[in-house]
Amino acid sequence: MKLFRASVTLLAVSSALLSSCTMMSKPDTLKFDPTKYTSGTTTVNGKTYKYRAYTVVYVANPVDSKYQSMNIYVPEEYFAGGSVGSYNAQSAPIFLPNQVGGYMPGEPGDITKPPMGGSADTPNAMQVALSRGYVVASPGARGRTNKDASGQFYGKAPAAIVDLKAAVSYLHYNDAAMPGNAERIVSNGTSAGGALSALLGATGDNKDYAPYLKALGAAPASDAIYAVSAYCPITNLDHADAAYEWEFNGVNDYQKLQITQDTSYQMQRTLVNGTLTTDQIAVSDALKPQFTPYLNSLNLKNGDQALTLDAQGNGTFKTYMASWIQKSAQRALDAGADLSKVSYLTIQNGKVTGVDFDAYAKGIGRMKTPPAFDGLSLENGENTLFGTSSVDARHFTAYGTQNSKVAATTADPQTVKLMNPMDYISAPDTRTAPYWRIRVGTADKDTSHAISAVLATKLTNTGHDVDYWLPWNVPHSGDYDLTELFDWMDKVVAK
Ligand code: DHB
């Protein structure tokens, strides 16, 4: 492994030679073995589905094979020349859900487990996928808290995205040997997992990740995917603090979610109420105006209209954000919701005619204290995402670095870039996924709605097919509309 690692720094030609020697002398552990399976059944809406289950380690040199492995579930029909719906062993799309939350390590998805927060008889996304004829491949990924026996961290950025890419390469590498069509991989994730799903879709085959993939012994094949499903992506972290204050500046009461572990290591989630201090209000006031130059630098458009902001944070982009809330409210109203008590909406004769965006932010409320992500005392999960093998937490914005309250270092710009899909959409030599579905509830306050909107709009403006929607009153969550999600997938994979 040491020798292989060292080869990364050698000339490309010698490292290629070295790795091909390694391939020749060792059995190819990355080859899919169709005989190594267990059989299982799963019940969705009263109907039972039979599958074959595989667990594979998707890199040749795993750092932690618990996380760098993938559970694969294949409809039994595909081993007997059969079909499920309109799919067969050759055409079946591959559903690739990651299980990452909070940028923590995520284990490969287990089809037998109920969905997060759901009851045992609510089918999870993998069950629904299987019932609809998809091959399911759910990779694990390292995360920010992974630590080895010597105290070294091994899941800091960009580990999680490198792992997901390696899993995709495994699927392309084995496309001929495995049921399912690796040209139709659809990734899915929620929150940090939604961010990674988007990042996977934005960065297909980009060479920035190549040295990391090589060090892990990833399969020599494409890491591009066909489509992205992302629920409430906690992404664009280097601009998320400013975006948060653009949305929530002036909202000084907050309800913060505190995640701790109890004595038996169970996650405890508690809501803590508070009011911003004078210092925190000053931080909010300093961060909010940083969003305007960033937003304007993106040169986004809604049709022919340029989306911009002025120094006060007002302008066509803000009106555009309000229009997404308005459309969401209209759909809820049409479906029979009583919105008469929603004070930030103007409703006339069954039509939502206005949204006061500032009042909306106040209405949903602030969840995070400023800076929302790059904590000035390195106290946030994102600080630890950007740590190193020996440093648990670092800053990753200029503001955090300049205003740090603790002795701290700052992540290098390249590592921050490797985690931001905005930097890779339609970049040269990059296969950005052509199809996207992005969902963020109107009641979500884990990151600014501007973050998903700029992602969706940049994708649309660069010619990608984007289904973006803010479901009414839905909080920070995912997989809540699986029928619609798979209807969308069925539609886009047919293109
Ligand atoms: C997640 C939520 C957050 O608020 C955040 O900052 C990072 C990750 C999550 O649920 O994955």
From TrEMBL:
Signal sequence residues: 1-25
InterPro entries the record matches: AB_hydrolase_fold, BD-FAE-like_dom, Tannase_B
Start and end residues of each BD-FAE-like domain: 124-245
SUPFAM superfamilies: alpha/beta-Hydrolases (SSF53474)
Gene3D superfamilies, sorted: alpha/beta hydrolase (3.40.50.1820)
Keywords: Signal
Domain of life the protein comes from: Bacteria
Protein name: BD-FAE-like domain-containing protein
Taxonomic source organism: Deinococcus xinjiangensis
